UniProtKB/TrEMBL annotation, chains A, B, C, D:
Free-text remark on how the cofactor is bound: Binds 1 [4Fe-4S] cluster per subunit.
Stated name of the protein: Amidophosphoribosyltransferase
GO BP terms: 'de novo' IMP biosynthetic process; purine nucleobase biosynthetic process
Protein's pathway: Purine metabolism; IMP biosynthesis via de novo pathway; N(1)-(5-phospho-D-ribosyl)glycinamide from 5-phospho-alpha-D-ribose 1-diphosphate: step 1/2
Catalytic residues identified in the record: C13
GO molecular function annotations of the record: 4 iron, 4 sulfur cluster binding; amidophosphoribosyltransferase activity; magnesium ion binding
Superkingdom field: Bacteria
Length: 475, 475, 475, 475
């Protein structure tokens, strides 16, 4: 088996929640997860309650594989939460799938979590010293134990108690037998928004998860806010003191779907603007602008618009490629990229091509694509990247390669250009990136993987251990 | 779907463990579970360790279904434990399969458990009040939490601490990164024995699990004993004060495999003797002795031997019948029994038949078999049961019907005879049952389901709730 | 993977058919196949018609695996046929499963076939020379092509035409859109019987297939007879001239279920009688009679009866063993037999044991069982086989080993005894075998695998090629 | 379950073939099928030969589902053929998957077929009258029977014989034990091209299937040509007299991948040109050009280029949507389209939008998309379709709806515009379509579904029966 996606950063999770009487809440959650599938393709789960019991289905695979035969369903179900998750092969264990369901003194809780707690290891150690057992390697279990140990009475107070002990990035949807709760970390790393159904409420990592079920977008959950939904309506609590905001800029660059709006900023518009500013910065002149589909397309159309150069399809993407395939012969090293992308000779032949992609992680794929274009007859290949060089790992829920795998951690732009054998190479500047945000304050963002300005003191993470602190990855 | 086995008591679990360098310990565990399959057909699991990591595969189904493609395997693996489990449809959830693996302050533990703790609910409530969360509905999780909370240092002391807090029936195999531990409750309800490999040790619920891998039987684990196996050898600890023994007599009557020897008593010999004494007690005269296969066969051969009446096959059992099948037509009510058993007309026609079975739970199956024999031409059907009437539920690890489903709880022997439409009916007396044990002290046994003499004060179990104290069954 | 059953002859197929308005005919066929499962465990299939369309489900595996989720079903279905099949790994291809459904000039036909045509290769060659293509390697396709090429008008005439061209052994159930037809070869090698439902008819390889659905046994289909069932009732045609009958004696010895009655002779009674005569012939004196379960049991009870020696269980069979399992260590060569059978020490220790089995093919299993008994303490092991030595292959539907694998083809009885290390060894004589048939004429039987008296001139079968004439096995 | 793709015409099949010593030919075929996956998502199959034996794996589902665990493989394999197929639920039977493998007098043949024979029913009837049986409902079986019945000697002569009897559209890859043959019908309806490996040859429905394995494009197979590849090299035969060419224009409009080149014409360039001419014809003025992804994108970029209006992404497509999903609530009728596509409000709000798609079949999806854009704030929606109105069914291998489902068969352009509620609607003219072909002769094309000029006299096809002549669809 050969891993096709080893070259990219991966969003780790998407969370979802529905509270609605007289709706098929688990089916709505299933549709919501479909829309959030890009946030995690390794496992999926849905938990439901009818006010007394909870049921859950979790499994490895895509949403339509896990729920191929049926979505969990209870008569009179009215709350459901869901989760999709990315994870690397080594740790993609069934027992690490979410949502978890637990019993504690206050009843039942089910929890889905997106993000990464930077002090999870510390807390876990303390809890273990205190006699707690852990059955998974996911942060979620830490949060649940803190809830159970809280001396507070209501579940929302207990949750606040719990969240005030953890540090890092998280968005969660939590369900008891009669409440749906959503919460977002005080710095707002990951997105979470609220939608309204005719007679109910929805929580979703991205607004595209509301659109898919026809829910009306209400607003984003604020950093440090918790919303509690039950039969008496919706309530908002700020569980943590104000802090410097640090929303992940990479959501706008790559992770989120272009049709989502996060904190008031359209992802599409940000990307389109990145492309425009890239054109202004790079000043490349070429015959055509092409994208590395799909993630490069929005910025490419922006680039073409700004530069007044036609946008055309120079690379075709095979939409049926799954995450893995059986590697045929040792001879053909480039099969993985060739299987995914194909250059269109008649488009690029003899042309000076401006190729736009969102980011460069290790650089190997970009190099292969440049070569593919040259083989198809491109005269010149100028690569434009709609983000700055990634020089530092992420500790907030992204499965980053260890630092030494990041090409920009070791090489200058010119060295990278040589490595990928492009005629020119331009990365969007941090200033340009900030400028591309027109509807959100660019200073409320995290840019740490570009400038190492980590917004939260992240403890003593041993280099490269970010992902496997409990022997498994977290989400 | 139609449940074929709804008429019987079911053994709830089998446990297994192997410690051996230079052996494929997980494959040996797989073979051991094959031999213990009769103790649980609903789920199976194997956990292994190589001294540093632990891996587990668990799933619903028979051993050869769960491990159809592969048995968990690590290079340098040298300890493995395994579990098979019976459970009713409602609660046969994947998350309730064993062995569990947890992390606690002392490292990793994997645990497999057979039995039923009568005070699990109480302890669990106390633990929950103290901030503990529970992710399954199995007693195993209670034991693991008590281990983690113990102030003792070694895992064996912690386990002793834990077991001294629980009441009821249990046999466990437990594994850390470098130890294999077996323990049996102080009253010895369930069996557990120790075997020796050339360079290693084996723990098995029944001795047939040793035979299958060619391990030499060493001895039974004593009630209240714990054996600890590691690289320094084997150590025995008595973790609890001596108590009145109460080994489950039903293991000899029905649960265990006839080729197993428990506490020095051959199961086959006990059953054969039950048949002989049954013949002496009943004094039935007939032309032939037949059994209800397979569970009635050993006693039937004993009956035939004692009575000097030929043993012949009057009923043929379809060996391919799984637990469930698709019910064809509403018209044919008796399909389930007919699918499983068929009378041989040429054998029973015109004959006075003595039919031997091991026990009667609800009586419906026996009634159908009697009718089947009459339809096949039997002149007379005299039923002999190699156990006394079951009048009371079991709280020690057996999935008993609630009391009101037990036919002997409501009807006299004569009423049962009329209900099953037999010409005569005889149940083995408790005295006869005791007499059938030739190699073990009959006074060290539990007979509670026959005489309500429960050996452990079992708390205030609400009638009928034995099985679902945590919403799910235990093992 | 390790093949557990490599040591036995295997019946190749079972066929079934139901014609009944107002019955769930496909579900009844499913139950029938359950009862015939012992005739083939490798694949199963059911075809149904509602008078216009035909539907079929076929698959590899046991009946309850192939139909795990559902049995084929049509509204208004009223005819169904079914098939179970044994085959070795190499040729167990999905495309060789039955029933086949084809279109021909007369409409649709579905056919299930048990047996082996000795001139199939010849006919197939002729048909191929004439421009016919073959998509499977089963004889069934030859019969269907002959039907389609017949100049006759009705399907029954065409079938007669077809069957008059083939030689060898066959029992078939055939269905058109409005007829159910059963046919048996003129020498009657394989069994086929007719049963009656309240408002319909049933065809089954063995009578146990009638019992399971509560159908009344009517009679056996006669050799050379064809019965045609449609809305106008049932019709019988003798499609072939009288020939010397040659029913397979091995059906009585091993293949058929003991509760079946074939051509008026109870299989149980024949086996019981074989055991009795064996006792008379062998005159062995021992302490106990045990059987090699399950196939040896009936004869063993007969032996015990005749000899006046107690029948007891000395070997326990693991009922959960499937056809294959993962072989653990190279060290343990005997695992396969040990996994399947276990000796009961307390029964055999110090005893002179008379062990009864039905037949010896290669002798390796028998040798291991003798050794197992000795290891369990048996003083003497006297083996009694309820059939004569098998010295010759079968060409009539049995998956025989090539001749050189048959131990009796190369060794004398004394040599075999030495090979299996028994104290004595006795095979039933052919005369004794004939004498055991009390209800059927012993001269109407095939004994060719014992005496090479092949009842049909079987063409020039190259030695050892019997099984793979079309590269795949036939049924 | 709800069918997501019910609104489109579907290409029915893709075929592939590799002949190469020292290459993993079945793995290469697997990669080729991946690239041809868009031509059929319902089933896939690969057959291989090592010169003596043939093996095949076929199954329902996508290429990576059917070959999830393994691709068929033989030591010394050197020829392989493959097939992907689309089919509607009703007839997506396992037995109709390809490639077929048959035995005939000349040996073994495996065949994969793309297209539709317009006289298959006639020939089949004649063959049936002549005694032939049919086991599938696919045209492939007719071709194979004609090969087997040919009096010619070599397989290529027999194939020529066979193909000269059939009418209609076909491209086939055929393999014997030592030859790989490709053939294309005399009118050239479907594409088939030839590629070269270092030491071998490849046949593929589209050139993208060569690119993926790094094979060099050699040329297209000519209409009426057959190429025969064996150890002596490659040979070309024209098996049929020259006829008026009639390549399917829909391959360029929609079916083929944009990165393929068919008969010298780049599919991308044709589509881009369709978009440009569409712009010239429609003269719509708007703020932005958007596409209905993915099929509308190439023409949309051409439109934007010609009109000088920016191309932007106004609709986001969920790439994870499989063919079916579980329909949630009855309330939400538009879920299917909403799940697949989402409008980007910030892009379309307040804008006059020119929306480009490739074709309109039933019009329901287009109507929903127009509505989606209006809900997202679009001021005006002008729809441009890069093909003429489809008024007539196809008989050449396309799964067309019956004529009455084609909206253009019943409604004028203005009526369609009203039905989909667009502000304007323009279809590309046939002249414009012809003009868009710059590298191939536009008069050598079939336009029958637009103008009913059927290039082959297609027999008396009863209306609507095109798809189910043998009760199942053909390919
Ligand atoms: N592998 C591929 N890469 C890119 N485009 C493809 C691929 N396969 C098919 N296509 C194109 O996708 C189009 C169909 O996609 P789309 O419009 O999304 O679906 P629909 O069938 O609903 O119209 C076709 O035009 C086809 O040419
Ligand atoms: N459903 C059944 N019930 C009882 N006996 C059966 C059944 N099916 C087959 N048999 C008998 O079981 C015998 C084969 O069983 P066994 O000896 O256990 O396996 P084998 O000899 O094939 O290893 C045959 O004699 C057959 O008649
Ligand atoms: N592997 C085995 N081999 C032989 N007997 C077994 C085996 N496993 C379980 N048994 C015995 O089978 C009996 C249960 O079989 P049976 O009577 O056929 O089913 P039930 O009574 O549960 O319907 C038990 O007495 C058990 O001791
Ligand atoms: N459902 C979707 N529709 C359209 N674009 C999506 C969807 N989901 C994710 N994306 C975008 O696709 C991009 C990733 O796609 P792509 O570039 O093809 O893969 P890769 O991860 O190899 O870069 C991300 O930018 C993401 O925003
Ligand atoms: S470090 Fe980078 S990826 Fe991580 S949260 Fe900050 S901006 Fe996002
Ligand atoms: S109550 Fe009965 S089944 Fe339970 S342990 Fe006691 S004897 Fe065994
Ligand atoms: S040769 Fe033997 S197995 Fe074959 S039909 Fe004759 S008796 Fe039966
Ligand atoms: S009718 Fe249309 S779809 Fe069919 S072959 Fe002709 S152009 Fe292609
Ligand atoms: Mg990308
Ligand atoms: Mg029983
Ligand atoms: Mg046997
Ligand atoms: Mg489209």
């Amino acid at each position: 088996m050969y891993e096709l996606l080893g070259n990219k950063w991966h969003e780790e999770c998407g969370v979802y929640g529905v509270f609605a009487h007289d709706e098929d809440v688990s089916a709505l959650t299933y549709l919501g997860l479909y829309a959030l599938q890009h946030r995690g393709q390794e496992s999926a789960g849905i938990a439901v309650t009818d006010g007394a019991w909870m049921d859950v289905t979790r499994g490895m695979g895509l949403v339509n594989e896990v729920f191929r035969h049926q979505v969990p369903h209870m008569d009179n179900q009215y709350i459901a939460i869901g989760h999709v998750r990315y994870s690397t092969t080594g740790s993609s264990l069934l027992q690490n799938t979410q949502p978890l369901i637990v019993n504690y003194s206050g009843g039942k809780i089910s929890l889905a979590h997106n993000g990464n707690l930077t002090n999870a290891m510390e807390i876990r150690k303390k809890l273990e010293d205190d006699g707690t057992i852990f059955q998974t390697s996911i942060d979620t279990e830490v949060i649940l134990n803190l809830i159970a140990r809280s001396r507070k009475e209501t579940v929302e107070e207990r949750l606040a108690d719990s969240l005030n002990q953890v540090k890092g990035a998280y968005c969660i949807t939590l369900m008891t037998e009669n409440k749906l709760i959503g919460a977002r970390d005080p710095q707002g790393f990951r997105p979470l928004c609220l939608g309204k159904l005719e007679n109910g409420w929805v929580l979703s990592s991205e607004s595209c998860g509301l659109d898919v079920i026809g829910a009306e977008f209400v607003r984003d959950i604020e950093p440090g806010e918790m919303v509690i939904i039950d039969d008496s309506g919706i309530k908002s609590v700020h569980f943590a003191p104000k802090q410097q905001l640090a929303s992940c800029i990479f959501e706008y660059i790559y992770f989120a779907r272009p049709d989502s709006v996060i904190d008031g900023q359209s992802v599409h518009d940000a990307r389109f603007m990145m492309g425009r500013i890239l054109a202004r910065e790079s000043k490349f002149k070429g015959d055509i602008v092409i994208s590395v589909p799909d993630s490069g397309t929005t910025a490419a159309t922006g680039y073409a618009y700004e530069a007044g150069i036609p946008f055309v399809e120079g690379l075709m993407k095979n939409r049926y490629i799954g995450r893995t395939f059986i590697q045929p012969t040792q001879k053909k090293r480039d099969t993985a990229v060739q299987l995914k992308l194909n250059a269109i000779r008649s488009v690029v032949e003899g042309k000076s091509v401006i190729m736009v992609d969102d980011s460069i992680v290790r650089g190997t794929t970009s190099g292969k694509i440049v070569k593919m274009l040259r083989n198809a007859g491109a005269k010149e290949v100028h690569m434009c990247v709609s983000s700055p060089p990634i020089g530092f790992p992420c500790y907030y829920g992204i499965d980053t390669s260890v630092r030494k795998e990041l090409i920009a951690a070791k090489k200058s732009v010119e060295e990278i250009r040589q490595y990928i054998e492009a005629d020119s190479l331009h990365f969007l500047s941090i200033e340009g990136l900030k400028e591309s945000l027109t509807a959100v304050n660019p200073n409320n963002m995290c840019y740490a993987c570009f400038n190492s300005d980590y917004p939260v003191e992240q403890g003593k993470q041993p280099e490269g251990s970010g992902k496997y602190v409990f022997e498994q990855r977290k989400c």
